[in-house]
């Protein structure tokens, strides 16, 4: 289930980052926050496969060079990478905080 969700999320990221039309943000540099959140989510849900997912923050920004209406930005790439790194750390921590706990439903709800 987790891998299926991650696969669908990667497809969503591909769509969002490689779509020619980009909505403008009412906040100055608001797109950096969007990049940070998008890739923090990717890192959180895919922290176990971080080594396989690590190229995505770079690759998706680089591919925007070939999409009409999109531009390459080192600042966006930085936001992607920072978000991904924070997400991986948060996912690793979250998973580790639940290690050793048993989940049982003895006695019903």
Protein architecture, described:
This protein has 109 residues and is mainly α. The chain has a domain at 32-98. The protein contains 5 helices and no strands. Helix 2 (30-45) runs parallel beside helix 5. The mean pLDDT is 88. Pfam families: VanZ (PF04892). This is VanZ family protein. It comes from Thermococcus indicus. InterPro entries: VanZ-like (IPR006976). Keywords: Membrane, Transmembrane, Transmembrane helix.
Summary, kept brief:
This protein is mainly α and about 110 residues long.
SSE arrangement:
Blueprint: H1 2-18, H2 30-45, H3 50-53, H4 55-63, H5 74-97
Entry keywords:
64% helix; 109 residues; VanZ family protein; transmembrane; single chain; VanZ-like; 5 helices; transmembrane helix; mainly alpha
Number of helices: 5
What would you report as the Rg, rounded to the nearest angstrom? 17 Å
Estimated share of beta-strand residues? under 5%
What structural category arises from helix and sheet content? mainly alpha
Tell me the major beta sheet.
Answer: none
Number of strand elements: 0
Report the end-to-end length measured between terminal Cα atoms. Answer: 24 Å
- Shape designation: globular
Q: What's the overall average pLDDT, rounded?
A: 88
User: Helix proportion of residues, in percent?
Assistant: 55-70%
Domain VanZ-like: 30-90
InterPro entries: VanZ-like (IPR006976)
Keywords: Membrane, Transmembrane, Transmembrane helix
Pfam family, one: VanZ
């Amino acid at each position: 289930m987790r891998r299926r969700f991650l696969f669908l999320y990667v497809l969503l990221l591909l769509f969002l980052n490689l779509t020619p039309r980009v909505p403008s943000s009412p906040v100055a540099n608001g797109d950096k926050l969007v990049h940070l959140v998008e890739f923090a989510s990717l890192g959180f849900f895919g922290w176990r496969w971080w080594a396989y997912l690590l190229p995505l923050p770079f690759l998706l920004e680089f591919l925007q060079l070939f999409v009409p209406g999109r531009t390459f930005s080192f600042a966006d790439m930085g936001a992607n990478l920072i978000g991904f790194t924070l997400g991986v750390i948060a996912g690793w921590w979250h998973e580790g905080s639940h290690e050793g706990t048993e989940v049982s439903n003895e006695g019903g709800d």
